[in-house]
Amino acid sequence: MGERFDTVIIGAGLSGIGAACHHRRECPNRSFIVLEARDRMGGTWDLFRYPGVRSDSDMFTLGYDFKPWTDGKAIADGSSILNYIKETAAEHGIEDHIRYDRRVVAMDWNSAKGHWALTLENADGTRFEMTANFIISAAGYYRYDAGHTPHFEGRENFGGDIIHPQHWPENYDVSDKRVVVIGSGATAVTLVPSLAETASHVTMLQRSPTWIASQPDTDWIANLLRKILPRKLAYRMARAKNIAHSRFIYRRAQAKPKKVGDYLKKRIRKELGDDYDVETHFSPRYNPWDQRLCLVPNGDLFEAIKAGDASVVTNEIERFTEAGILLKSGETLAADLIVTATGLEVVVNGQAEISIDGTAKNLSDCFGYYGLMFSGLPNLVSIFGYTNASWTLRADLISRFGCRLMNHMDTLGLDIVTPIAPADMQARHWLDFDAGYIKRVADSLPKQGDRDPWQNRQDYKFDKKALMKVAVDNEGLVFSSSRTAKTKESA
Q1: Among 21, 63, 84, 279, which one is least packed by beta carbons within 10 Å?
Q2: CA-closest candidate to residue 189, choices 303, 326, 93
């Protein structure tokens, strides 16, 4: 059956390294291993190599709750974030616990033995097994090997290069190229100003606009606090300030969407001038924060547009041609390079197959317990962050909850915990979020229920209270012991 560990953590990205650090700090008596499908740690921040890659949240909230962010920039580039992850892993001795090139392809819960049997696959395709009492899944929410690319008529006729940002070629040179970036989300608004620095011209081609806000990439209050206060205290205060601010903006957008939308457009008009057609190119069909608000540090996108190095076209694609893209309006966009910033392919649990005693289990049939465990699946915690705030805020809470839960079981002398949903539960979509990458897979995701603790509220204040105080000892969780099953089996 191979090696056995008390806890297996799947993934060595931002969430997985954080989970491993929490585990080492809070569950020192439990053995653990981190399984990473790729050959390096860092997850998103190692995989994404496209020009300008950066955070879309401030690092005082995207950073770990136990590890102060000390860089001068609050909106950080990808390499700085990767260094932060590696530094955190080194400080907590996590590197020796990571097994690289270990992709989890299947997980089968053995009720009699009270453990998960994991089927792993290494880089050469060889498969082997490992067992664990408890799993923390930090595998991320999207496919690493393929981004989302819609079908484009005539794609094969295009004479230039076509690149998806998730697979950006190393040292690719855009100098003097005419570039069309298809998309209007976080990746597109990051790419356009960065490419515009050397390209002949960059056009952001969007089917419909996205809400965008400009913000400085430095936080002067946080930097001031760091000068006058001890490092950890300054970090906690800056983090609390930014959490409160982001919660205020989100709640304001939900309560007064038109006012917030008008305010955002007013700021863009101030950036681009009254003559710019903001209504066409920066006035979305949906309300602010129905989808994630895009962040533009220091107004770099608007600066590129004002300089004439970039432009925005709002239209639909008829087909690709040899020389570029023909729009439904009849206009042709000439291009030497087309970048398909068209999104991610959302997956659950790293695409690993899940079964109970050999019987396949479909996550879409499960209800989420506080959005982090699944009904009928024992000893499994899954990390999924916020859509309306920094990912790591929730990842930290979930990791700490997992540790509390394991310690609680140890105290009780039990080794199995299973969420059991009420029989009369009414199913709702996993997330109340209108983004395309979520809507495309809504039917394959777990469900949330019509009452707590089966709702996925995406609310930091609520989650902090629930996960750190009441979620461990709750009627939705059933605790048991594999030793009882073994005794009955032997009898």
Answers
A1: 279
A2: 303
